[in-house]
């Protein structure tokens, strides 16, 4: 069974990636995982105003909003779709999950929600292309 990992962040690019992954997975033995990476918020000033439980609840709420949109797209798919939340840097966490789960293919959008960050630091997609242990399909 082929394992497909789809990083989702609520962006139009992520939605396109989900739709494309469905088109290649339909009718085949595939295991699809939607991955959302939330920021850690592990900053000294954040801890002054929010405790760990509040931060964790905020991260989970953000992920559930993203998953809800993506799962609406996958409802018609006969293949089972699972969701997974990771905390940290998106590029690093996507690669770490791909390695840990034995992912066969990552399908992701070219652009996510971080336009300015992408310009300054390089895109998540570029990081994943260079660091992941499996093939990556970028959906424009």
Structure characteristics:
5 strands; Rossmann fold; five-stranded parallel sheet; 140 residues; alpha/beta
Amount of beta strand: 15-25%
* Helicity level: 40-55%
Radius of gyration based on Cα positions = 15 Å
Q: What class do helices, strands and sheet pairing give? A: alpha/beta
Unreliable sequence segments: 117-122
Give the distance, in angstroms, between the N- and C-terminal Cα atoms.
26 Å
Mean pLDDT: 88
Order of helices and strands: EHEHHEHEHHE
CATH topology: Rossmann fold
* Top CATH class: Alpha Beta
Described by strand count, sense and barrel closure, the largest sheet is:
5 strands, parallel
CATH superfamily heading: HUPs
Strand order of the largest sheet: 3-2-1-4-5
What general outline do the C-alpha atoms trace? Answer: globular
Question: Any chance you could write out the topology, listing elements then pairs?
Answer:
Blueprint lengths: L1 E6 L4 H14 L4 E9 L5 H6 L2 H23 L6 E7 L2 H12 L3 E5 L5 H7 L2 H8 L4 E4 L1
Parallel strand pairs: 1-2, 1-4, 2-3, 4-5
Helix pairs in contact: 1-3, 4-6
């Amino acid at each position: 069974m082929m394992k497909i990992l789809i990083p989702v962040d609520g962006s139009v690019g992520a939605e396109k990636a989900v739709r494309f992954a469905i088109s290649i997975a339909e009718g085949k033995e595939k295991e699809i995982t939607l991955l959302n990476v939330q920021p850690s918020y592990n900053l000294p000033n954040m801890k002054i105003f929010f405790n760990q439980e509040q931060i964790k609840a905020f991260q989970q709420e953000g992920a559930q909003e993203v998953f809800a949109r993506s799962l609406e797209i996958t409802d018609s798919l006969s293949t089972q779709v699972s969701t997974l939340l990771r905390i940290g840097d998106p590029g690093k966490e996507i690669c770490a999950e791909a390695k840990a789960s034995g992912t066969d293919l990552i399908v992701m959008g070219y652009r996510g929600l971080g336009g300015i960050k992408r310009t300054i630091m390089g895109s998540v997609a570029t990081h994943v292309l260079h660091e992941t242990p499996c093939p990556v399909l970028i959906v424009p």
